[in-house]
Design a protein that fits this description.
With about 110 residues, the chain is an all-alpha fold. About 65% of the residues lie in helices and about 0% in strands. The protein contains 4 helices and no strands. The protein has helices at about 10-25, 30-35, 40-50, 70-105. Helix 1 (about 10-25) packs across helix 3 (about 40-50). The chain starts with 10 loop residues before the first helix and ends with a helix.
Length: about 110
């Protein structure tokens, strides 16, 4: 089996590929070869299609729910993630400043 570099696909392409794979009875490797996409990608799409239908094939990378669609728990979780990130940044800034102070004291 050869490694195939990923390529962008449209939702309609993903649907067509998955349906062709299911109807043809081809192996994942044969379908991957035919459409020049990776074995893993075909496998993932078929699994998602079996679980959620066409909705499972929609690419949601980078999508964030608008605040009005979030439940109260989701809003609190998002706020918590933001606060943790701010805290981590402050901790790193403090470590940096301490290290800088230590270096400056060694020089004098």
């Amino acid at each position: 089996m050869t490694m195939i570099k990923g390529r962008k696909t449209t939702l309609q392409e993903r649907i067509d590929i998955v349906i062709d794979h299911i109807e043809s009875g081809r192996s994942y490797a044969e379908t991957a070869e035919k459409y020049q996409i990776s074995y893993q990608q075909i496998y993932q799409w078929v699994q998602k299609y079996n679980e959620k239908g066409v909705d499972g094939l929609v690419d949601r990378r980078g999508r964030t729910k608008p605040e009005e669609e979030m439940s109260e728990v989701e809003k609190l979780q998002a706020e918590n993630r933001i606060l943790k990130a701010k805290l981590k940044r402050k901790e790193l800034e403090n470590l940096f400043l301490k290290k800088l102070d230590e270096i400056e004291r060694r020089r004098s």
